[in-house]
Write a structure and sequence with these properties.
Elements (H helix, E strand, L loop, with lengths): L9 E2 L31 H23 L10 E11 L8 H15 L22 E5 L12 E5 L8 H4 L10 E6 L7 E3 L16 E4 L16 H9 L65 H12 L5 H4 L2 H7 L12 E3 L3 E3 L2 E7 L7 E6 L2 E2 L2 E2 L5 E4 L3 E10 L4 E13 L4 E2 L2 E3 L12 E3 L8 E4 L9 E4 L9 E6 L2 E2 L7 E8 L9 E7 L7 E7 L22 E4 L13 E7 L6 E9 L17 E3 L6 E8 L3 E8 L5 E10 L2 E8 L6 E9 L2 E9 L1
Parallel strand pairs: 2-3, 2-4, 2-5, 5-7, 9-16, 17-23
Antiparallel strand pairs: 1-6, 6-7, 8-10, 10-14, 11-13, 11-15, 12-14, 15-16, 18-29, 19-22, 20-21, 21-29, 22-28, 24-27, 24-29, 25-26, 25-28, 30-31, 31-34, 32-33, 32-35, 35-36
Length: 694
């Protein structure tokens, strides 16, 4: 038997077909760096972890040696909270899938797994009822009613790291925190041993991280992956892999390790369901154990049960407080289900006329009756948990829901919950400099709803044009949070292709900040989005790093950008745009002059032939540019600089010109960066050329 110095249990469980060997499998046991800054730069904490490990192991051995203790006297109830960290993708799993994950855990820990009695005969007498039951919290840390599920929008869902855990957690001495994310740092799930997080500094990392596709047996997961949470909960209660603490099962060197459990044979570990497998001198390995990677797991052993009960009775990482009567009362897990909150979700909040929305009741707890009212919808009422409603007329509509359980009922109204946009939007050109008021109401732009009060807002503090602009206060935002500014529908069919242009101002705080601003377009009224422009890190910054609250001090601290022409399949009458800002520690973001222009941009354009083409060289230009064309006949000519809406900015030249080649020079030194047109007017018609000033 050999022990290692530090312990961090993780299970990197990859999708698997029974009796098939996984390739490229990795496991990350003892990778304390996953705790981030909690461990990094603190070597003294490594020594403390070893001390906690030794103390817990001593307690465990004494517990197992106590012959007078009735090992089956307690049933341990663990309050659980699931934190769903998502970016509005498939990782935002349903409440039903969360509850199914809890169901599988409780079956596995209470000898209720349907096929437990089919384990290999050699191990049938060792199958243990662990007597551990996991229950969803019904009271949050403040004593408020809860269903034990939180939802947080963040791109850190793609990391699944300590920084993601820092977004949301409940006290570990009262709840088992389970974070559900799109990724778990390359793993299917991971958890710490109690000794690794026993110090007060370890509380922030205590719990389980699991990929959304490994929760339960429904939704984004399946039966084959459904026992991952049971495996991770085993680590959380101080169980090792059956082969010990190496990062890879199957290694011969694993025979020199042990899991400190007497009735699990010494093994080098399995990634396939070889029921006759025997390694390290054992007659047969316990391949079907939940702490293996075989993907045919069915059982815990009596020895593992003793080890788990020892961990739950130890004060290490507050495990012994979780199942105490006082804590069960504080978390409400033994309370009868009580209807205490009305809530619902929907597949969309904004649709085009004629579109449909499916609503899902998320009220808690114990709801059996529903009474919906959909203002402006068809049907206008419903009495099922998940109705689908069609909206035919543009407008903003309330939704109300009353739920009941046969005895009590509770109702709520969500005002202006559904926005229905016209299928045919505003025609081009569209110019918005936010001068009509201090809210988004008069504009085609709306700030998407977010959980906190911080969001895009119209501000009169500064502007590139006029007095108002759009501000996103980013000075105190959590890394990974996203914010959206979305448009109504725009009709570009009369003047395709379309170009969205905008002014922006942003400052970093530190050179390492990688805040991002992305522009998307949708050709199906927001059902799907296509990336059209991205500004990240240095490309987004328009001003020097700023420690205080950043406010651009003049035109020189504003940038200009635009999308490439949008046409083809996107030449629709209900085109939509959205700006998505992702915070990464930087400062405030400002937007102004968000314009959508078509090909002609309101300018009467002469049909071009090879001999009538108008050129701007160089393009893009900086301080100076040359305009050239061919005049078929002599006559009066006016050459002027024009903005994107066709408004004259400056006369370049005016007078009578002879027939033949003509050239004019433009001085652009004081012209702000952006996109412009040159227009040449003659009696025979006008011609224009677009160019960009850097």
């Amino acid at each position: 038997m050999r022990t290692t110095l530090f312990f961090l249990a993780t299970a990197w469980l990859l999708p698997f077909l029974s009796n098939a060997q996984n390739s490229g499998f990795m496991c990350g046991a003892n990778e304390l760096h996953r705790m981030g800054d909690i461990i990094s730069g603190h070597p003294e904490r490594l020594q403390q972890i070893e001390q906690y490990r030794s103390e817990l192991e001593h307690f465990t051995q004494a517990w197992q040696a106590d012959a007078t203790r009735d090992q089956d006297d307690n049933t341990y109830i663990i309050p659980v909270v699931f934190h769903i960290v998502h970016n509005n993708g498939a990782e935002n799993i349903s409440d039903a899938q969360v509850l199914d994950g809890l169901r599988v855990m409780n079956e596995d820990f209470n000898k209720l797994t349907p096929d437990w009695d089919q384990v290999q005969p050699e191990f049938l007498d060792r199958v243990a009822d662990m007597e551990v039951t996991f229950k969803m919290a019904q009271l949050d840390p403040d004593g408020n009613c809860t269903n034990g599920i939180t939802r947080t929008v963040s791109t850190l869902t793609y990391e699944g790291n300590q920084e993601m855990k820092d977004l949301v957690r409940w006290p570990r001495d009262r709840y088992l925190n389970i974070w559900v994310a799109s990724a778990a740092g390359g793993a299917a799930g991971y958890s710490m041993y109690p000794s690794s997080v026993a110090g007060p500094w370890g509380e922030d990392s205590d719990g389980i991280v699991v990929m959304s596709s490994y929760v339960g047996a429904i939704g984004t997961s399946d039966e084959n992956k459904s026992h991952t949470l049971s495996h991770e909960a085993g680590h959380w209660m101080n169980l090792k892999h059956c082969w010990g603490d190496s990062n890879e099962p199957g290694l011969e060197s694993n025979c020199n390790m042990d899991d400190n459990v007497s009735d699990t044979p010494n093994t080098k570990g399995w990634q396939s369901c070889n029921l006759q497998g025997a390694t390290c001198g054992s007659p047969k390995d316990n391949v079907e154990n939940f702490m293996e990677y075989s993907y045919c797991s069915k059982m815990f052993t009596t020895g593992q049960k003793n080890r788990v009960h020892a961990a739950l009775n130890s004060g290490t990482a507050s495990r012994n407080n979780l199942w105490s009567a006082s804590n069960l009362a504080l978390t409400g897990v033994n309370n009868e289900p009580e209807i205490c909150a009305v809530a619902f979700t929907s597949t969309m909040r904004t649709i085009c006329a004629g579109g449909s929305v499916t609503f899902t009741d998320a009220s808690y707890n114990g709801v059996t009756e529903w009474n919906w009212n959909f203002n402006g919808g068809s049907p206008s009422t419903a009495n099922t948990a998940n109705p689908t409603v069609t909206y035919d007329t543009p407008g903003v509509y309330d939704v109300s829901l009353t739920v009941g359980n046969g005895i009590d009922d509770l109702g709520a109204v969500e005002q202006q919950y559904i926005t229905v946009l016209p299928m045919t939007g505003d025609a081009l050109p569209i110019a918005e400099s936010f001068e009509e008021g201090t809210t988004f109401t008069p504009t085609i732009w709306t700030a998407a709803e977010v959980a906190s009060g911080t969001n895009f807002e119209v501000s009169s503090t500064t502007a590139f044009t006029g007095s108002n602009s759009v501000k996103l206060s980013n000075s105190s935002s959590t890394n990974g949070r996203t914010f959206e500014l979305v448009s109504s529908t725009v009709d570009i069919t009369g003047d395709p292709p379309a170009v969205l242009s905008f002014r922006y101002a942003f400052a970093k705080r530190l050179n390492s900040n990688e805040d991002a601003l992305r522009v998307f377009a949708s050709r199906d009224c927001g059902a799907t989005w296509s990336l059209r422009r991205a500004l990240v890190g240095d490309d987004l910054a328009t001003a020097p790093n700023t420690g205080g609250s950043f406010v651009p001090n003049g035109p020189g601290q504003w940038g200009y950008n635009e999308t490439s022409p949008i046409g083809g399949l996107y030449e629709v009458s209900n085109l939509r745009f959205k700006f998505v800002f992702e915070s990464n520690g930087g400062n405030n973001l400002w937007l102004d002059d968000i314009n959508v222009n078509g090909a002609s941009v309101g300018i009467s354009e002469l049909g071009s032939t090879a001999g009538q083409a108008l050129y701007v060289v160089p393009n893009p230009a900086k301080d100076r540019a040359e305009v050239s064309t061919f005049l078929a006949e002599a006559g009066r000519v006016k050459v002027e600089l024009v903005d994107l809406l066709g408004r004259p900015l400056k006369v370049i030249a005016e007078g009578v010109a002879p027939a033949g080649e003509a050239r004019w020079t433009m001085d652009l030194g004081e012209l702000p960066a952006g996109m412009y047109f040159v227009r040449v007017q003659q009696a025979a018609g006008n011609r224009v050329a677009k160019f960009t000033k850097e």
